[in-house]
Amino acid sequence: MTPTEDSFAPSTAEWYYPSEDISRQAYVTDYDALYKESMEDIEGFWARQAESLEWYQRWDKVLDRSEAPFFKWFVGGKTNIVLNALDRHVKTWRRNKMALIWEGEPGDKQTFSYWRLWQEVNKFGNVLRGMGVKKGDRVTIYMGRTPELIIAMLACAKIGAVHSVIYGGFSENAIADRIEDAQSRVMVTSDGAWLRGNIVELKKIADEAVKRSPIVETVIVVKRTGQPVNMQHGRDYWYHDLMALPIASPKCETEVMDAEDPLFILYTSGTTGKPKGILHTHGGYQVYTSTTLKYVFDIRDEDRYWCAADPGWITGHSYIVYAPLILGATGFMYEGAPTQPYPNRWWKMVEEYGITILYTAPTAIRGLMRFGDAWPNRHDLSSLRLLGSVGEPINPEAWRWYHKVIGKERSPIMDTWWQTETGGFMITPMPSVGLKPGSATRPFPGIDADVVDEEGNSCPPGVEGKLVIKQPWPSMLRTIYRDPERFKQQYWSTYAQQGWYLAGDAARKDKDGYFWIIGRMDEVIKVSGYRLGTAEIESGLVSHPAVAEAAVIGVPDEVRGNVVYAYCILKAGVQGSEELVDKLKEHVRHEIGPIAVPTKLEIVASLPKTKSGKIMRRVLKARAMGLPEGDTSTLEE
Ligand code: WT7
């Protein structure tokens, strides 16, 4: 590892300070003091945050380290995240406040007050109970970005069921694997979803998935697009039919949960072909997500907050669904593509709804930047107070455009580094902190983050190392569902002696203590901010009868961060052709999903491998990018 201060010195010199009116009114005006205070007594800090929430019964112990790395938070506490997200609000004036404003891609609109959302959740909770769903059962949710997705998640949580939301961009095999792993007997889906003016046929894909994972006994279907779908008698039910039954009463008892009872499983990609079921719980997760959202995005009652992620990813779970509702905020959600029908769609909605906080991903910013300033400039964006970014490092050029053209040099950008596993923001600015474009700045209070070398020594400023978290935090993943060994191995074995969490990212700190995330160190790639496992795509390719072996890499791309390149060795006797290349791409689309389709797929006779037979992806990547291949002494092609 070599010092690389020079390579990022220009941006360390570039500081941005939020305007006075924004920083002075923020909840946190002195980050350094709050951070210091939190580190002197981490448990005390989190206990104080937890006190602002409701509990059926207070915890006896804030943190239990006795079975580390299986840490437990707020032990003995009884709660339910829905108690805080909905039940408590409908007893106050907030019952009349808007919880959710929604716009569909074709332009249809819906609004939900806290009262209405609470009632819909109660009704669907009763429906699920009526279908035999019990506390601890896993329910798979595979839907587009519609209010029913949020209602389904909350209804599961309310009755103590564990939701497993699968992003609508995944296809049959990816869904089937996740259903199988979660052993989920009930699925909630919809007939379709609007995207770029077309219908994504979710029910059709769900049917294929269920064929492969016949453990599913009940499928509940939301009517969104109205095109005809196959409804299997005795298995498939329309959501609106069930919601009209007498069992769908608007009063529903909230299940009393242990703080450590599971809330959801969310599958994410790792180093092997098998996705990891990241498990989060009711207690610590509600405390952490609500605290971070409040302090980082400075949520006020008068805000109109738009997190433009998909609820099917952790960003949506934490910061579209749970944290904003716990804080009693008004959230906005949009169903479709940012460019439908024109590239001003987002800016038009910012103006129309008076959005005050916009939280999105670098890939979206770069994508919209490409269309030029004229589209945003047609709209009054002066309602915006804070901006956010998540998912991958934001390049300074996109940062500056976002800051200038969208934020009018007034709104600071909260570049939040975190992961599915961390549950909430870990390294992030707050509205009173000085910013450097491309840096996620500093750790959230209570978070002991560092960049270390192989031995665990802190790296000096400018030196690349591994990003670690040295102390537990309330919303940390509790395990990998049904695979505790993999949990220990993946996150806790590298620095087992020290007991540190390994994030899997390479990073640097600069002399001001600011963190600069470089990217994944493992076989995970980020395509348009979506996390994909190269191994998952490879096994998708190899499942095609023509393919003997496959290697997949991520190659840098200006808009999407990375794109997928795939190299396939065909089975003996199979002839390569343009047609086959197209077929293989189509196969990936079906097996995993459109986001995983390789931009380039090459049929090759051999792959660069080490003498022990491991594919050298580093060499493939260097070749793809036209760079020197580096040390190839172990190469045996
Ligand atoms: C990986 C986690 C956290 C919600 C969405 C992603 C990368 C995430 C940033 C950022 C640089 C980032 C990391 C991380 N990442 N945010 N602000 N700057 N990199 O969750 O799908 O679990 O992916 O995303 O590489 O490890 P995820």
What does this entry look like structurally?
The protein is α/β, with parallel strands linked by helices. The protein is built from 20 helices and 32 strands. Strands 12-11-8-6-7-14-15-23 form an eight-stranded mixed β-sheet, sandwiched between helices. Helix 19 (578-591) links the parallel strand 29 and strand 30 (600-603). It starts with a helix and ends with a strand. 5'-O-[(S)-butoxy(hydroxy)phosphoryl]adenosine is lined by residues 268, 314-315, 390-393, 415-420, 440, 503-505, 517, 519-520, 526, 531. 5'-O-[(S)-butoxy(hydroxy)phosphoryl]adenosine binds next to helix 12, strand 20, strand 24 and strand 25.
Summarize this entry quickly:
With 637 residues, this protein is α/β, with parallel strands linked by helices.
